Amino acid sequence: MKIFFVRHGHPDYTEPKALGYPGFGNDLAPLDALGRSQAEQTARDPRLKQGQLIVASPFTRALQTAAVLSRRLDLELRVEVGLHEWLPDLTYSYTDVETVERARAEFDAMNGIAGPERKQAWETWEQMRTRGDGR
Fold first, then answer.
1. Parallel, antiparallel, or unpaired: how do β-strands 76-79 and 53-56 relate?
2. Are 24 and 89 in contact (CB under 8 A)?
Protein backbone atom coordinates (compact mmCIF):
# COMPACT_ATOMS: atom_id res chain seq x y z
CA MET A 1 0.00 0.00 0.00
CA LYS A 2 1.29 3.45 -0.88
CA ILE A 3 0.57 6.34 1.45
CA PHE A 4 0.40 9.93 0.21
CA PHE A 5 0.26 12.85 2.62
CA VAL A 6 -1.51 15.95 1.38
CA ARG A 7 -1.65 19.10 3.46
CA HIS A 8 -4.75 21.26 3.27
CA GLY A 9 -4.83 24.28 1.01
CA HIS A 10 -4.42 27.94 1.90
CA PRO A 11 -6.77 29.17 4.66
CA ASP A 12 -9.10 32.14 4.88
CA TYR A 13 -9.00 33.26 8.52
CA THR A 14 -11.35 36.19 7.88
CA GLU A 15 -14.60 34.55 9.01
CA PRO A 16 -13.42 33.06 12.35
CA LYS A 17 -11.77 36.38 13.24
CA ALA A 18 -14.90 38.33 12.28
CA LEU A 19 -16.99 36.01 14.44
CA GLY A 20 -14.61 36.54 17.35
CA TYR A 21 -13.65 32.87 17.71
CA PRO A 22 -10.69 32.41 20.05
CA GLY A 23 -7.49 30.58 19.02
CA PHE A 24 -8.81 27.11 18.29
CA GLY A 25 -11.60 28.74 16.29
CA ASN A 26 -9.00 29.45 13.61
CA ASP A 27 -9.14 25.73 12.82
CA LEU A 28 -12.70 26.32 11.64
CA ALA A 29 -11.45 28.62 8.88
CA PRO A 30 -12.36 27.43 5.38
CA LEU A 31 -10.11 27.41 2.34
CA ASP A 32 -9.81 30.66 0.46
CA ALA A 33 -9.85 30.85 -3.36
CA LEU A 34 -6.15 29.94 -3.51
CA GLY A 35 -6.72 26.96 -1.21
CA ARG A 36 -9.62 25.69 -3.32
CA SER A 37 -7.46 26.05 -6.42
CA GLN A 38 -4.61 24.18 -4.70
CA ALA A 39 -6.96 21.31 -3.82
CA GLU A 40 -8.23 21.09 -7.40
CA GLN A 41 -4.67 21.14 -8.75
CA THR A 42 -3.58 18.43 -6.30
CA ALA A 43 -6.50 16.23 -7.40
CA ARG A 44 -4.97 16.19 -10.89
CA ASP A 45 -1.70 14.66 -9.61
CA PRO A 46 -1.49 11.28 -11.43
CA ARG A 47 0.13 9.59 -8.43
CA LEU A 48 -3.09 9.97 -6.46
CA LYS A 49 -4.99 7.79 -8.93
CA GLN A 50 -3.33 4.84 -7.15
CA GLY A 51 -5.14 5.79 -3.93
CA GLN A 52 -7.72 3.59 -2.27
CA LEU A 53 -8.91 5.75 0.62
CA ILE A 54 -8.68 9.34 1.84
CA VAL A 55 -8.20 9.84 5.57
CA ALA A 56 -8.69 13.40 6.82
CA SER A 57 -8.50 15.48 9.94
CA PRO A 58 -11.84 16.80 11.21
CA PHE A 59 -10.66 20.39 10.81
CA THR A 60 -12.44 22.45 8.18
CA ARG A 61 -9.60 23.07 5.71
CA ALA A 62 -8.49 19.44 5.79
CA LEU A 63 -12.06 18.24 5.22
CA GLN A 64 -12.63 20.73 2.44
CA THR A 65 -9.41 19.66 0.70
CA ALA A 66 -10.22 15.96 1.24
CA ALA A 67 -13.73 16.47 -0.15
CA VAL A 68 -12.31 17.86 -3.39
CA LEU A 69 -9.90 14.92 -3.66
CA SER A 70 -12.64 12.41 -2.83
CA ARG A 71 -14.98 13.86 -5.45
CA ARG A 72 -12.34 14.16 -8.18
CA LEU A 73 -10.69 10.79 -7.51
CA ASP A 74 -13.89 8.91 -6.63
CA LEU A 75 -12.40 7.66 -3.36
CA GLU A 76 -13.99 7.00 0.01
CA LEU A 77 -13.36 9.70 2.61
CA ARG A 78 -12.83 8.71 6.26
CA VAL A 79 -12.56 11.29 9.05
CA GLU A 80 -10.18 10.54 11.93
CA VAL A 81 -10.96 12.80 14.87
CA GLY A 82 -7.50 12.39 16.42
CA LEU A 83 -5.65 13.33 13.23
CA HIS A 84 -4.59 16.92 13.74
CA GLU A 85 -1.71 19.11 14.77
CA TRP A 86 -0.36 19.58 18.28
CA LEU A 87 -2.70 21.51 20.58
CA PRO A 88 -1.01 24.51 22.20
CA ASP A 89 -3.95 25.10 24.53
CA LEU A 90 -6.16 22.27 25.76
CA THR A 91 -8.72 24.82 26.94
CA TYR A 92 -9.12 25.98 23.30
CA SER A 93 -9.37 29.55 24.54
CA TYR A 94 -6.15 31.28 23.52
CA THR A 95 -6.67 34.57 21.74
CA ASP A 96 -3.23 35.51 20.43
CA VAL A 97 -0.21 34.05 18.70
CA GLU A 98 2.02 34.95 21.65
CA THR A 99 0.18 32.39 23.82
CA VAL A 100 0.91 29.70 21.25
CA GLU A 101 4.56 30.74 21.06
CA ARG A 102 4.91 30.61 24.86
CA ALA A 103 3.26 27.19 24.96
CA ARG A 104 5.58 25.91 22.22
CA ALA A 105 8.66 27.24 24.02
CA GLU A 106 7.54 25.65 27.29
CA PHE A 107 6.71 22.36 25.52
CA ASP A 108 10.18 22.33 23.94
CA ALA A 109 11.93 23.24 27.21
CA MET A 110 10.11 20.43 29.01
CA ASN A 111 10.56 17.94 26.15
CA GLY A 112 6.79 17.58 25.89
CA ILE A 113 6.45 16.18 29.40
CA ALA A 114 4.26 18.20 31.76
CA GLY A 115 5.83 18.76 35.14
CA PRO A 116 4.67 20.77 38.15
CA GLU A 117 6.39 23.85 36.74
CA ARG A 118 4.22 23.87 33.60
CA LYS A 119 2.39 27.19 33.17
CA GLN A 120 0.62 26.62 29.83
CA ALA A 121 -2.11 24.01 29.16
CA TRP A 122 -0.44 22.44 26.09
CA GLU A 123 -0.85 18.90 24.78
CA THR A 124 1.91 16.57 25.98
CA TRP A 125 3.74 13.95 23.91
CA GLU A 126 1.84 11.24 25.76
CA GLN A 127 -1.52 12.87 25.00
CA MET A 128 -0.57 13.08 21.32
CA ARG A 129 0.46 9.42 21.31
CA THR A 130 -2.81 8.39 22.92
CA ARG A 131 -4.79 10.51 20.49
CA GLY A 132 -2.81 9.09 17.57
CA ASP A 133 -3.50 5.53 18.72
CA GLY A 134 -7.21 6.32 18.68
CA ARG A 135 -7.67 5.61 22.39
1. parallel
2. yes
